[in-house]
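DOMAIN: structural biology
WANTED: fold as tokens
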Amino acid sequence: MHFSYTHPHPYASTRLPVFARNVVSTSHPLAAQAGLRMLQQGGNAVDAAVAAAAAMTICEPVSNGLGSDAFCILWDGQALHGLNASGRAPAAWTPGYFHSRYGKGQASPPKRGIDSVTVPGAVSAWVALSERFGKLPFAALMEPAAEIAERGYLVPVVVQQKWAAAVPELHTQPGFSQSFMPWGRAPQVGELFQFAAAARALRAIGATQGQAFYTGEIAQALVAFSQAQGGSLTLADLAAHRPEWVTPIARNYRGYTLHEIPPNGQGIAALIALGILDQFDLASHPVDGAASQHLQIEAMKLAFADVYRYVAEPSSMEVTPAQMLDDAYLASRAKLIDMNKAQDFGAGNPVKGGTIYLTAADENGMMVSFIQSNYMGFGSGCVEPTFGISLQNRGQAFSTAPAGPNPANLVAPGKRPFHTIIPAFLTQNGQPVMSYGVMGANMQPQGHMQTLVRMLDYGQNPQVACDAPRWRFNEGLSINVEAAMPAATVQGLLGLGHRMEVIQDSYQDFGAGQFIWRMGDPKVQGYVAASDPRRDGQVAGY
């Protein structure tokens, strides 16, 4: 693929792609610098990614924390590997557990509070990646984040906006105000935020290769905290946690192959949508025109209809990913699209008969696509104060009703819930091309698809594809579009029956992405990297 890098490009952002042989792309400059520091100390892309991920728990606590979950796809120089580090339900969790506490009318665990917390998996992802592929001592990877937490950093604009927005809902959750409202309020833009408790945790995690978190002093503090709030997390739940190495699922598109983590995550939605779009000549329509956007929206709707019906913990699913990605099945789904009107699709029958994303790459060819999240902003809102462990609320994604819309996602002891966070990786003829991802709940597969279509169907370079206006499907016929979407396109989509809201604030609705595209031999041609203006994106490289 030969991209054009002429500037200015057709969209509002003034960003230029970064060219380097070693590169880290994140949504905060201090995290990018933490990763670059590892590379300059002789580490590889995995060391850089882990250090950046740890730093992001401090620099963007709205979106992730030490109590997050994580996923990764990486190219080790020879082969592709997937890592699922999502946590499991405590042993006490059953539908009856939640019905006794919240009533039988409760369709899912609560949105916030201690009963939304599953076992956190992010720390186990850092350890697993470092042990298998890293070069530097694990403690060294935690040190940049610990230093940032101890010394403090000046809160940036986008993070501050979301921080302040979360305070009214979360200020009463245990540990929240103590950790994230040091002046009795959210920090102001440019105000120094220090997090000594998290620095203590990071150094304990580093010194013990993560054991402190799952069997040691942090585990004990987490269980005591949970029990004090009436929660059910036990030392046995934490000690039993193991991240899982998995084989990514894949789908060919326009001569390339997109790889995603298999269920319990929603990455398959991007593959389904691309499999449907493969039945159409998208490039015959203008890139920002209503026809191209309509086709993409409808393909995404069809994908979500199946994902929300079938995707769950793999052992509980009624159908397999292979059945959902079957060529004939996707061709039949593509036939449901009407070029002249928007539709509200139901699920088909495939049976025959608050997130941060970062990516890093090094001159030896290793490429890492990594994502971690506490789910909704600040997750559960619960923060263990001794070590500053901000706990995710992934348990809220379970169903507690056997007759719910996705029976396979019914809560059970030791089960993993449906997950939204998904890293992506692109190859061609078995060789690495791009590590990338987009943040923001169900925007993630939509962003994977929209940016990839721009690159592969329309030849837009990664930064242009990152800057271009996006839409986001909500439900039924409802979509949101960015204010930068051409007026003629908005009117064209309205004319097809899409119900649209034009959004000025792009942070939550349209995600933010990081992209690293391999140019050739990493030692010679290196990589081109892009970051998203929607969330203070930052690329560091040399």
Q: What stands out?
A: The chain has 19 helices and 21 strands.
